[in-house]
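re: the backbone from monday

yeah here it is again, tokenized this time
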């Protein structure tokens, strides 16, 4: 309860920005790993690259975290209540924003590969005209940037409801905030080919460019 009240107070105290960027995971909940890389580190790196590009495009940005620590004690990262509290704190840290984007890297069997983006169709009545549009813009621009900038034809795994993955909990709690939201799973760290690509800064630059173009495309449809 205290975490919720503090999160609400933090949210109300901040001014609105164009984009809230959420680098998924932390040292308390490291996420996927592969090829010597860890999701919580890569998401922060990627978010910083996206932030710089968005600011260069004259958009205001707030990141939900700027170091590797969680925002809550998160003593048990496998407990639904603990994860929900952490994600509520992420939404609050992002503050009032026109959109909220959570950045992730995927994990699973080594055979899985590609890029997918999630939205929450139950977040608000107009999600089909907002959240899904945002997710679609992010998805196709990330796919295009990987192809054009690093020559990688990422499998397009599509834009999906957040419940499609069978996770009505965990980081999908980040799609329950007050603004249009999307969660991008940028490649699979568990896939050796994609993990190797992610050792190259050019791949992270391509992902950042794709995300930035997705945001700009989305805002162009709103203005």
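seq for it, each position gets an aa:
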């Amino acid at each position: 309860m205290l975490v919720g009240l503090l999160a609400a107070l933090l949210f109300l105290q901040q001014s609105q920005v164009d984009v809230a960027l959420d680098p998924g995971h932390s040292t308390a909940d490291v996420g996927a790993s592969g090829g010597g890389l860890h999701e919580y580190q890569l998401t922060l790196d990627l978010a910083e690259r996206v932030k710089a590009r968005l600011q260069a495009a004259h958009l205001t940005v707030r990141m939900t975290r700027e170091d590797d620590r969680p925002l809550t004690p998160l003593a048990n990262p496998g407990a639904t209540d603990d994860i929900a509290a952490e994600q509520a704190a992420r939404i609050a840290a992002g503050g009032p924003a026109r959109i909220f984007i959570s950045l992730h890297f995927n994990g699973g069997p080594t055979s899985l590969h590609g890029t997918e983006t999630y939205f929450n169709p139950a977040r608000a009545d107009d999600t089909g005209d907002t959240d899904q549009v945002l997710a679609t813009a992010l998805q196709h621009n990330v796919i295009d940037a990987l192809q054009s900038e690093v020559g990688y034809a990422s499998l397009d795994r599509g834009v999906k409801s957040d419940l499609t993955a069978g996770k009505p909990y965990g980081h999908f709690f980040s799609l329950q905030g007050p603004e249009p939201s999307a969660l991008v799973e940028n490649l699979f760290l568990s896939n050796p080919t994609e993990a190797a690509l992610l050792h190259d800064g050019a791949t992270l630059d391509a992902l950042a460019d794709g995300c930035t173009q997705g945001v700009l495309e989305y805002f162009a449809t709103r203005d």
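The helical segments are 2-13, 39-56, 80-94, 131-150, 192-197, 201-222. The mean pLDDT is 93.
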